[in-house]
TrEMBL record:
Pfam families with a match to the protein in the record: HTH_6 (PF01418), SIS (PF01380)
Gene3D superfamilies in the record: Glucose-6-phosphate isomerase like protein, domain 1, Winged helix-like DNA-binding domain superfamily/Winged helix DNA-binding domain
Lineage of producing organism: Bacteria, Bacillati, Bacillota, Bacilli, Lactobacillales
GO molecular function annotations of the record: carbohydrate derivative binding; DNA binding; DNA-binding transcription factor activity
Biological processes per GO annotation: carbohydrate derivative metabolic process
Keyword terms: DNA-binding, Transcription, Transcription regulation
Alphabetical list of CDD domains matching this protein: SIS_RpiR (cd05013)
Organism of origin: Pediococcus pentosaceus
Residue ranges occupied by any HTH rpiR-type domain in the UniProt entry: 1-64
Occurrences of domain SIS (ranges): 108-248
PANTHER family assigned to the protein according to its UniProt record, in alphabetical order: GLUCOKINASE (PTHR30514), HTH-TYPE TRANSCRIPTIONAL REGULATOR HEXR-RELATED (PTHR30514:SF1)
Protein name: Putative HTH-type transcriptional regulator
Amino acid sequence: MSKRQQQVADFIKNQPQVFINSSSRELEQKIGVSAATIVRFVKILGYSGMEEMRVYVAQQIQHEEHSIELKINQEDTAELLEMKMIQLYRDSVESLKETLDSDSLEKACALLRSANRIYLLGVGTSGLIAYDLYHRLNRYGKTTFYNTDAHMSLEFTQQSTAQDVIVAISYSGLTEEVVVGAEAAQIRDTPVISILSNTESPLAKATDIQLVIPQTEHLVRLAAVASRIHSTLVTDILFSGVIKENISNIQNASLKTGELVSKLKRK
């Protein structure tokens, strides 16, 4: 970036509202560079012209104005907590777009659809996410195995073959109970799909398809909640990808399950 382009960049960063409200000629005087230099800088960034750039900057200002410090404080009211959690969910969705590769996601969904059986691995919070996915897949007719006892889950995975799939969930990619299961699966040629944030972790090395979520745990705020949201969003996408091509049969399976469960309800 040239010295003059840096001047433009610094001005937009420090005085975004002035940039939005000023014409090219006015900016020329305020920044100290020619209008042509400003326009060239805007186009280098990929915008069609000044107007598009102004819209983008305005959106960023609006986002900042509505941003809330995502940290729980003792004096927070219920209304403020509601606002913080809503923003956390919104931000989590946006940040996931930056790390989750669509091609990997498509391959993972195809692999799960064709699998004879699905085995899930996860402990702690990841275990709760795995447990939820386990129930949903089974409810809709996809044979899936999971147990909240990590040793039992590992025992289940020992039956997996090359026609099955293992989904391993671990934010850090370091959870031993999950890594051991993934490594053992590869010996049996069972494909492994992982949901993780650390692409250099032991789990990543024992994975065929990585579904990468943002690294948030280093942030001292609502990081643990954010990582749960990210992992849950990914499993929601995988679940939808599995059931979407067999909707009629899945609806029948759901109805039968619902009828069976309804017999347990008091009248």
